[in-house]
Amino acid sequence: MSDTILVQDAAGPIATVVLNRPEKLNALTRPMWRKLGDVFHDLGRAKGLRCVILRGAGTRAFAPGNDIAEFATERSNVEQARGYGEDMRRTIEAIDRCPVPVVAQIHGICVGGGLEIAGLADIRICGESSRFGVPINKLGLVMAYAEIKSLIALAGEANALEILLEGRVFDAKEAKDKGLVTRVVPDDQVEAEARATAERIAEGAPLVARWHKRFARRLRSAEPLSAAEYDEGFQCFGTKDFQAGYQAFLAKRKPEFTGE
């Protein structure tokens, strides 16, 4: 089952994680959810990693959601669903809490659980023919708290409810209008644009990227910031990367960041 989640170039500055089940349009199984969570947990601790590209195998789909054929044995009653949902929750949290910036490279279909996963990325790039939605009302299936929380964080409550209550599948333009994707490009440019985006991230100061991601996540909470949290916003001035960055700017040369 590990082959259905591929990790490429994990030792370099840009790793690629692939939902690798192209014969089923990368439909997600319970073991895939588990493996995906493990992968992101490990990538979050990888030294030297500056960006992760997350994609589905091929260009027909990112993922169409969970494999319905598996439900009869893995999700057919409340008790099974509770365990399945716990695996999903752990993976959602692992992706969301990954300190490394994540770019979603979205080809084709991206609905249901596929949209949930892609929506956890920090930057989401899709092709003009991509399709989005969460048509689970047609299955009598509820989006649990952990899942709906990330959808609301991405698109807002009004858009999230529209998506869930209607169960429509809609185009890339509407997805961008709703905030589900960051950028829409011609289908044949999705991979190149995702790679170029990851390279721009990797060229920046890696500690800064991680700080910005963590600060953005923290500000989702209405809880007041502590004095220590305020102070963390100035810790970058004590890094070697700051010295390298501003000195390179003054010298009109490209900075070399080491993550220190």
Keywords:
11 helices; 260 residues; 6-stranded mixed beta sheet; 44% helix; globular; 4-stranded mixed beta sheet; single chain; alpha/beta; 2 domains; 2-enoyl-CoA Hydratase, Chain A, domain 1
Describe this structure in words.
The structure is a single chain. Helices cover 44% and strands 16% of the residues. The protein has 260 residues and is of the alpha/beta class. The chain has a 6-stranded mixed beta sheet, with helices on both faces. It has a 4-stranded mixed beta sheet with strand order 4-6-8-9. A hairpin with a 5-residue loop joins strand 1 and strand 2.
Number of helices: 11
For the largest beta sheet, what order do the strands appear in spatially? Answer: 1-2-3-5-7-10
Could you tell me the CATH topology label of the largest domain.
Answer: 2-enoyl-CoA Hydratase, Chain A, domain 1
| CATH homology-level superfamily of the largest domain | 2-enoyl-CoA Hydratase, Chain A, domain 1
Secondary-structure class:
alpha/beta
Rg over alpha carbons: 19 Å
Query: How do the helices and strands follow one another from N- to C-terminus?
Result: EEHEEHHEEHEEHHEHEHHHH
Shape: globular
Low-confidence stretches: none
Largest sheet: 6 strands, mixed
CATH class of the largest domain: Alpha Beta
